[in-house]
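FORM 12-B: Structure-to-Sequence Request
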């Protein structure tokens, strides 16, 4: 059997999404998500959506109530953690499920902490990219936006060399363009 192409996976995910309500999954919707998870167990967007729908399912079939449903939910999220290389969303979702259904086992705190650290690292890089992007546009408005975001980013990431570098560049451009007064030596 050949692996489905990305466009096929996305089409199947869309089909599963429209087969039910986002807040009240249908049997057909869950079936389609499960089949997609079987066809491609590393397609993380589907795994996370399947897990969310399993949590929202108020009327599971009799064979999937209680522990069976919790077991499936935990397996799907553990699979999402592995398939996503321990992405922040997958870690946080697994932590919530373990916390809710397993009475806060010790690993929950570590999962939340790892998810938060990965999310912060992504935020740091995204903000540095925005500061760089706005600086390179070099308009008065874009430089003001870069400086404003830089101030916020510097507050959250005071030790970040990446943020510091981009913010220094934005400030130099703002001084050169007359938006900021020259710094005193």
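FORM 12-B RESPONSE
SEQUENCE OUT:
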């Amino acid at each position: 059997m050949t692996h489905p192409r990305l466009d096929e996976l996305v089409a199947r995910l869309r089909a599963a999404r429209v087969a039910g309500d986002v807040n009240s999954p249908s049997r057909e919707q869950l079936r389609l998500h499960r089949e997609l998870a079987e066809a491609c167990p590393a397609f993380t967007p589907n795994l996370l959506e399947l897990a969310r729908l399993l949590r929202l399912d108020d009327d599971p079939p009799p064979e999937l109530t209680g522990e069976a449903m919790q077991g499936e939910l935990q397996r799907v999220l553990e699979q999402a953690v592995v398939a996503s290389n321990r992405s922040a969303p997958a870690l946080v979702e697994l932590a919530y499920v373990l916390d809710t259904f397993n009475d806060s086992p010790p690993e929950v705190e570590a999962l939340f902490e790892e998810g938060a650290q990965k999310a912060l690292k992504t935020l740091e890089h995204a903000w540095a990219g925005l500061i760089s992007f706005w600086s390179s546009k070099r308009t008065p408005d874009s430089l003001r936006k870069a400086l404003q975001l830089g101030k916020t980013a510097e507050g959250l990431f005071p030790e970040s060399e990446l943020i510091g570098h981009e913010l220094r560049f934005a400030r130099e451009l703002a001084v050169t363009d007359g938006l900021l007064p020259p710094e005193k030596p």
